[in-house]
Amino acid sequence: MTKNKIKTKKSNKTLETAREAGYFGKKMLESAIRAQDEGKPIGWSMANWWEGDIIAKAMGVNLVYPENWGAFCASIRRAEPFLEISDGEGFPNTLCGYARNNIGFAKTLKENDFVIPADAPGGGLAKPIMMLASGAACDARYKWFQSLGRYLDGVPVWMLELPQTGAREFFLPENKANNLKFIVKELKLLIRFLEDLLKCKMDDAKLEAMVDQAFKTLGLAHEVDLLRRNVPSPMVSQDFWSIMIPHFYLPDDPEAYEFYQRVYAEVKHKVDNGIGAIPNEKYRMMFGELPPWHSIGFFDDIAERYGIAMVMESWNYHAPTPLPEEEIDGVTDPLERIARLCYHKYTEYNPAALKYAVAPSYFSAPFLEYAEIYRTDGFMAHPLMSCRPATYTLMQTLQRLEEKRLVPGVVVNGDIIDLRVFNLEEAYSKVEAFTETMDHYRELRRKAGMAW
Amino acid sequence: MVIAGLDIGSVFSRAVVMEENAVVSMTLRPTGGNFRKAVAGLWRDIRTMRIDPLDIDVMGACGLGATFIDRPFMKIAELSCLSRGVHFILPDIRSIIEVGNQYSRVVRINADGKVTDSMASEKCAAGSGRILQVIANVLGIGLEEFGPLSEQAGRPAKFTTNCAVFLETEAISRVAEGIPVPDIIGGLHHTLTAKIAGMVKRLKISGDCAMTGGGAMDSGLTRTIESEVGLRLHVPEDFMLASAIGAALIAAERDKAAVAEDAMASLQ
Amino acid sequence: MFCAGIDIGSTITKIVIANRNEVLASVVQRTGAQHRRRAHRVMEDALTQAGLATSDLDYIVATGYGRINVPFADAQITEITCHMRGVSWLDPDVRTIIDIGGQDCKGIKVKDGRLDDFIMNDKCAAGTGRFFEIIAKVLGIDLEEIGPLSLTSKNPAEISNLCTVFAEQEALSRLSEGVPIADVAAGIHRANASRIYGMVRKIKIEETVAITGGGAKNSGLCHSLQERLQLPVFIPPEPLITGALGAALIAGEKAARVGGPGLAALKKHRRWDAATFFSDSATQAAMQPTNSQHSHMG
Amino acid sequence: MEEQNNTGLRRAAEIYRHRGLRARQLKEEGKKIFGYFCCYPPIELLTALDITPIRVLGNMDEPVTEADDYLPPVMCIFCRSAFDLGMKAQYNYFDGFVGAHACDGAERTSFIWQNYIHSPCNFQLDVPHTAHGPALTFFKEQIALFQKTLETFCGTQIHPDDLRQAIALHNRQRALVRELYGLRKPNPPLVSGTEMLQVLIAVMSIPVTEGNDLLQAVINEVTTRANPHAPKHRLLIWGSLIDHAAFTELIESSGFNIVVEDTAIGTRPFWHDIEMTADPLDGISDHYLNEVLCPRTFRETGPSYQADSDARFNYLKEFAKHWNVDGVFANIIRNCDIHGYEVPVIKDYLNAIGLPVLVIEQDYSTAALEPLRTRFEAFAESIDGY
Ligand SMILES: Nc1ncnc2c1ncn2[C@@H]1O[C@H](COP(=O)(O)OP(=O)(O)O)[C@@H](O)[C@H]1O
Ligand SMILES: Nc1ncnc2c1ncn2[C@@H]1O[C@H](COP(=O)(O)OP(=O)(O)O)[C@@H](O)[C@H]1O
Ligand code: SF4
Ligand code: SF4
Ligand code: SF4
């Protein structure tokens, strides 16, 4: 019955370039389907934060990302039937919505003799010859692919591991070196796995070129983030959730780089001319973790009603800050470079984590830094009913932001996919009252002599 | 300037009319499940107090049925109204527990009566004031009687379910088993208090606190909260009207700001 | 061989007396607060109906929420197993049973006539018989009417509240907005059907689907469920008694297994003590059957 | 009741009921106490330094009130409960806290524990999710860091001989636990699930030597007493842990004898010994990464679904065979992803070898136990063949 309750709200992107971004999502799905027609290898991959997917691509595997496709299915409200199938298979309905969506699809695919059903959302996902799971950040991201064995019998899963050091442990002598060594060895194992599976050799030059390209794209995506520090904010979450796709999934694609050049130019133009993304920026907020893909238009509404600019989102989806010179100097091995970048992303907020006592550094610590850098008035936490990793640390973040940064938070319950708990009306009423809270804390920050 | 505030709740509808920051008239009536009729009733009440609804310059409203109001008004979030209203009545209070029909909520406010933090119970009647009403119906007594009765409670009854509906059934069987009514009420207060206590703790509230909503009618509940959570509760005199007052005040404020903005715009 | 199955439900008590596979009597009464007395009462009524005496009964199985409160039962079996057995006997093709009781709701899977899997909600009144009792009261109609009435609706009202208590209020305000009763009732049925469906689908719904329990007597709910299921459903002629029927069938099997001498010993030790059996007139009045029916199924 | 040799089980029950008592006594005597989460931290290192390791557990009987502020409701309630007890100062005697990246929930809880509950010494052990060769090396390096952290904190080095001795003591403990498990093979079993739970939790609450004495006493007791248990269906429990006797009592009064538990307070920490390697850390790291069989570790998928399940769950077939199991209860604490994703696979696998499986997602609360009775009884009836 909740089915019809919330209507799909697509967002009004504020950037012209953000409207182009849909192309990249389509491109990924289409290229996999084309690959299937041409008999080329297809892989399903977790968003790997540039660990392994580039390597697989360099070996000629066409990757699609079920997480991305899950968000897509949710945004067009086509996930429900897949969720139902997953539930019927006996998977708990508390599992990650992306996973349930993908499991439901995999079952459908199997029952259809691996011919993608004609009406599959976005053309569907072509059957893979391998799956690239991830040991980083979330258990679902390997348990889920492992459990797909029931439907994709005999499709091997490779789990690419990434160490998750504690903030304190990060500073222990030797630890960093051990970690980096481990990642490089893991990447080598992945290459060996791929070489055995595909019966061909890695083309080192190609990999190097792709890694170079990815570094460039990520660097540029980061430059765009930097521009968002300006007041008024030249670009908001509504845009970000679209433009993240190219750097998140296709950083090695030259088209992605070109795209960011255009994004950069547009955002820069706005900054130079003092044009805000929303006309009446009164409050600047950060958004905690994954958005309600089914109702992204919510952000437009609160922008319009209350002048809220959502100026920054979770660390997860953003490009890392570029590697410091000393980290990259003289490092030419592409595997080593990937390792350093990944590790950097996972550990760059460790000093902040110790300072604010918010280990693990990922998830919480970035927000404590952003609070000041992006001059934010508030934090919107979106606890998800089906994604635990993105929810585990939200309470801690709320606590510490208020306590250490005098930035208050508001909690809006929901989910990436599942429509059961999100309640727009309730969300509006909470946010409306929260504007007063932000006024109050602004005053407190001023009294405490804080910089924003 | 004449300002008015309406709070069209699921159980009660209320209206206040204010002038110069003072309440000049107020009314409270059961909503009776029909918002439109309730609103019409409020206008009638106001007229009997010799105020012409047409004289109202600015009107703010909140509550589940606010959309049924047939005159121009500003819709304001319930939470803000409650906070401002309580602040108006009890200026020194910085926190509020509201046990209303739809939710229980706990709010922290600042010296200006603005919300600084809040939490509400889940959308399950077991955590709301509704449960009091449900049990009162079963026992065939009024909510006002809960307080005095629960004072005689010996050992509060234990309930095994969390569902308001099943709790009702359980209460019936407890009565059949011969458990005294005061103990049943005591058990209920205990259950509800446990839910509220969680929220109070999360918002780190201590000391003086206002209590509003229909639940404030039940002195047994307030007493239980005081002793089990360790708060000093203040039930404002017109606690059922707090949100209506808040709605009026906020509407007036926003109207002033809008006028000023218009003036600025015309200057430019 | 005479056997009895007695199902002390949260809301309704059912009893079936059978001779091997022939149903001799069945009685349905409101449970009330006193399980033991109710057990005696339905037993007495059923025996009268069947023309039997207590000493004729070879084996008695108690089931349901109050199954431990039947002093004269020879065995207790859960209502999950009993419904499964009763329905399988009525229609051996049934694979999925949706049982909607007074205070809970279950999904039961059957495989080769055996209990294969099940799931239940007994935490929240939404999706249970209680929901409809409450709503019928609010709508001012009899419980029996709510289903047929809802079927006349062309435009079911949107009921967004999952909570029974709030849905009751929501129904009220819909009515006050002028929404016809039938539309409100239809909206309520839809909301509950989705809730029930959402739970049952977890055990993988397979054909044939049967609906049992008091909820199956509600044609509106069955209709909405069928809409969600997109499958034909089987509704037993008397869906309330499938649990008691299953219990009686199980009693028959048990009796056969125990055999003559064993049964004699069982009978001798059976506790018919009715120390508190209809001692005062006030209780007697309270024990008047509210809804008694019987049926014979060959 | 009975005479002298009944002291084992009674003592175990006593320690189980007052978990912190012995630790607090030891602390008063000047000993150091460390808390640890999950079965992954190598407690041998603690024992080698004469530190008593206490396993951090929750309490299903105590409503979670303090943890709400820090851990959201979508987290496994066991984790929330454990942290809740921490916030309520029930573990305030710890000199140190060792967290581990076992599952996401345990990892984040460990971190948040260290942020809000301050112990003089803290360590977070990063346990890789794979058993690849490099992962083993990496894990060993992590353990070496743990060792150094401990040594710095204590101001003494761990002598390899002390470590070897600690390993031997813990191996002895593992052997005794397995021996006790052996006593559950007869029908009816000589030890009930509730007794086993109390013994294992007791053992995780006292120094290893005392634990070994206790285990020996229990073994002596149960082999000589008149078996008080009646034959019932024999149940294997797989999945999230059970750490409260109210739960095992409910199950065992609903038609079952629990005979083996493949959980984190069951066979998992005890099933294999640590090999005595030249460098003790080799044996330790290999044991914890490769021999503690929890689905939190990803093992390479086989060439087919069947082969993969065989490789991963073959040991369950062995349990089922040797303990003559009639049915399996898959216990899923709500929001436990590690076990949740495995539900269909485990059902496929066990059903294929003829074992019925009851899956319950439960809320880790004693108040919510009684309604589960009908489910267990119905499961028992389905095994009866109804
Ligand atoms: N006579 C009454 N009728 C209904 N509810 C009452 C009555 N007296 C007290 N109450 C209590 O008042 C609550 C309604 O509180 P209130 O805050 O006014 O809700 P709302 O704003 O939704 O109308 C009910 O849940 C009940 O606990
Ligand atoms: N004729 C009917 N129409 C609609 N609902 C009915 C009818 N008869 C009984 N019920 C419903 O059936 C429920 C009882 O079902 P039952 O299966 O006997 O449950 P239990 O075993 O828990 O007592 C009651 O709550 C009532 O709502
Ligand atoms: S992080 Fe959340 S959304 Fe992403 S895979 Fe894990 S559970 Fe799913
Ligand atoms: S548990 Fe009861 S009170 Fe809560 S939502 Fe369900 S029906 Fe309503
Ligand atoms: S029960 Fe599951 S989620 Fe909880 S700590 Fe254990 S493995 Fe992790």
Largest sheet of chain A: 4 strands, parallel
Overall 3D shape of chain A? globular
Spatial sequence of strands, sheet with the most strands of chain B: 3-2-1-4-5
What structural class do the secondary elements of chain A suggest? alpha/beta
CA-atom Rg of chain B in angstroms: 20 Å
Overview of the structural elements:
- The complex is a heterotetramer of chains A (452), B (268), C (298) and D (386).
- Chain A has one domain (16-447).
- Chain A is 52% helix and 8% strand.
- Chain A has 19 helices and 8 strands.
- In chain A, helix 9 (204-227) packs parallel to helix 11 (254-272).
- The N and C termini of chain A lie far apart (45 Å).
- Chain B is α/β, with parallel strands linked by helices and 268 residues long.
- Chain B folds into 2 domains: 2-82 and 241-267, Nucleotidyltransferase, domain 5; 93-235, ATPase, nucleotide binding domain (Nucleotidyltransferase, domain 5, 2-Layer Sandwich), CATH 3.30.420.
- Chain B contains 8 helices and 10 strands.
- Chain B has helices at 35-48, 78-89, 130-139, 143-150, 164-177, 181-202, 219-230, 242-267; strands at residues 2-8, 12-19, 22-30, 58-62, 74-75, 95-99, 104-109, 115-120, 207-212, 231-234.
- A 5-stranded mixed beta sheet of chain B has the order 3-2-1-4-5. Chain B has a 5-stranded mixed beta sheet with strand order 8-7-6-9-10.
- In chain B, helix 2 (78-89) crosses helix 8 (242-267), helix 3 (130-139) runs antiparallel to helix 6 and helix 4 crosses helix 7.
- Chain B is globular.
- With 298 residues, chain C is α/β, with parallel strands linked by helices.
- Chain C has 2 domains: 2-81 and 241-283, ATPase, nucleotide binding domain (Nucleotidyltransferase, domain 5, 2-Layer Sandwich), CATH 3.30.420.40; 93-234, Nucleotidyltransferase, domain 5 (2-Layer Sandwich).
- In chain C, 42% of the residues lie in helices and 20% in strands.
- In chain C, the strands form 2 sheets. In chain C, strands 3-2-1-4-5 form a 5-stranded mixed beta sheet.
- The model of chain C is unreliable at 275-298 (pLDDT under 50).
- Chain D is globular and about 65 Å long.
- Chain D has 15 helices and 8 strands.
- Mean pLDDT of chain D is 93; it is low at 1-5.
- Chain D has 2 domains: 2-161, Rossmann fold; 169-384, Rossmann fold, CATH 3.40.50.11900.
- With 386 residues, chain D is α/β, with parallel strands linked by helices.
- At the A-D interface, helix 6, helix 7, helix 8, helix 17 and helix 18 of A face helix 5, strand 4, helix 6, helix 12 and helix 13 of D.
- The structure holds adenosine-5'-diphosphate (2 copies) and iron/sulfur cluster (3 copies).
- Residues 9-12, 63, 100-102, 129-130, 132-133, 143, 213-215, 217 of chain B line the site of one adenosine-5'-diphosphate (ADP).
